[in-house]
Amino acid sequence: MSIEYLGLSSINGPLIALEGVQDAFFDEIVEFVVDGTERKIGRIVEVYEDRAVIQVFEGSENMSLKNTHTRLTGHPMEISLSPDMLGRTFNGIGQPIDDLGPLISTVKRDVNGLPLNPVKREYPRNYIHTGISAIDGLTTLIRGQKLPIFSGNGLPHDQLAAQIVKQASLGENSDEQFAIVFAAMGVKHDVADFFRHTFEESGVADHVAMFLNLANDPVVERLITPKVALTVAEYLAFEQNMHILVILTDMTSFAEAMREVSSSKGEIPSRKGFPGYLYSELATIYERAGIVQGVDGSVTQLPILTMPNDDITHPIPDLTGYITEGQIVLDRPLHGQSVYPPINILPSLSRLMKDGIGAGYTREDHQDLANQLFSAYAKVGDARNLASVIGEDELSPIDKKYLEFGKDFEEHYIGQGAEENRSMEETLDLGWKLLGRLPKEELDRVDTKILQKYYHPMEE
């Protein structure tokens, strides 16, 4: 039997205190009825003896100490699940906002999920094709991986995210089911409309489940959005045997919402004002990716975060780098040169790439080619630094060749059209074509047999 409580003890922004509570537990969902008509939900974030502190998802507007009835539900937040969620648009707590009616489902799951048994995890293999050469060729996304994109304010991460949603697939020869769960946190209305229209116009909306938490939505809702999205992804992957790519943008909004709520609770801040449990909260989200033994599906994560002041040592990218398996870094100077997507490959890395490429996955030369392109592009930086000191005319012939290679590499390999979807074959062939600018003796990262088979010097 549930007990209904009349009135509240105190209201502080989205936080409400209720005294005289019996048998309440952390993370329990609470239902409010305001003035006998308006319904809201919240969750318990702190319990001390008979006092409970509750976060209200929709905000505490219109609520007063006397006009509110409170009922404890006895369960954590749950979301209804169905394969029909693909092609639908929801708000940050999983309620439909696309005017297509309510979701009909008999399945409900706790949004906090259950931790994957480490013994039951399978090592990620095989790649997810994005059609973007800088990712597919050099920082390959592997099924079951978590690979964040580090961006900055004003860089085209939204455009890149939309392009990945439009182009992502399991490769040309795969007949397995593939879908995308897309969650946006704290985005402006024009950005939300951009995502909606892009997905609809490109015809991919039918295999995308979209969750939108807008900038003017309550801050507390932002904290639950990635958990709701990942619960849907886990259901589709582990119960419906689909391969799911989860794109979360922007994790910085999530972390700043956490800081705001933590501050209003009066908690002692840690680095840059963020709560001390920022690491564990990020880990509970990022670790909800992987492959389970005996299940055909997988959950792959591509979280996007904007680095404040482009500072990669800021707590959010810093902690994210500890938890995830690499990063893709967007670069402001490349963006200034009108290179799209402006991916700086030198600080970018995919730690699981080596196990999902090569013969049987992509092509035998993939790993050697990637190693050589990284090495050659690093030497481009050295040549440019030298040219800035002594002038380009004084450079040796080989340094001039590296300068030419660097210009071509940025314009034609990293740079590609926003609508251009390159196959893995095209990406690898383009890499060899660019390496043809360099003398054969400079290619010291490639196996001799592969070099003989794929290297063709570029005619002057």
From TrEMBL:
<dbReference type="Pfam" id="PF02874">
    <property type="entry name" value="ATP-synt_ab_N"/>
</dbReference>
<keyword id="KW-0375">Hydrogen ion transport</keyword>
<dbReference type="InterPro" id="IPR020003">
    <property type="entry name" value="ATPase_a/bsu_AS"/>
</dbReference>
<comment type="similarity">
    <text>Belongs to the ATPase alpha/beta chains family.</text>
</comment>
<feature type="domain" description="ATPase F1/V1/A1 complex alpha/beta subunit N-terminal">
    <location>
        <begin position="9"/>
        <end position="64"/>
    </location>
</feature>
<keyword id="KW-0813">Transport</keyword>
<dbReference type="InterPro" id="IPR022879">
    <property type="entry name" value="V-ATPase_su_B/beta"/>
</dbReference>
<dbReference type="Pfam" id="PF00006">
    <property type="entry name" value="ATP-synt_ab"/>
</dbReference>
<keyword id="KW-0066">ATP synthesis</keyword>
<dbReference type="InterPro" id="IPR000194">
    <property type="entry name" value="ATPase_F1/V1/A1_a/bsu_nucl-bd"/>
</dbReference>
<feature type="domain" description="ATPase F1/V1/A1 complex alpha/beta subunit nucleotide-binding">
    <location>
        <begin position="131"/>
        <end position="350"/>
    </location>
</feature>
<dbReference type="Pfam" id="PF22919">
    <property type="entry name" value="ATP-synt_VA_C"/>
</dbReference>
<keyword id="KW-0406">Ion transport</keyword>
<protein>
    <recommendedName>
        <fullName>V-type ATP synthase beta chain</fullName>
    </recommendedName>
</protein>
<dbReference type="InterPro" id="IPR004100">
    <property type="entry name" value="ATPase_F1/V1/A1_a/bsu_N"/>
</dbReference>
<dbReference type="InterPro" id="IPR027417">
    <property type="entry name" value="P-loop_NTPase"/>
</dbReference>
<comment type="function">
    <text>Produces ATP from ADP in the presence of a proton gradient across the membrane. The V-type beta chain is a regulatory subunit.</text>
</comment>
<feature type="domain" description="ATP synthase A/B type C-terminal">
    <location>
        <begin position="355"/>
        <end position="455"/>
    </location>
</feature>
<dbReference type="InterPro" id="IPR055190">
    <property type="entry name" value="ATP-synt_VA_C"/>
</dbReference>
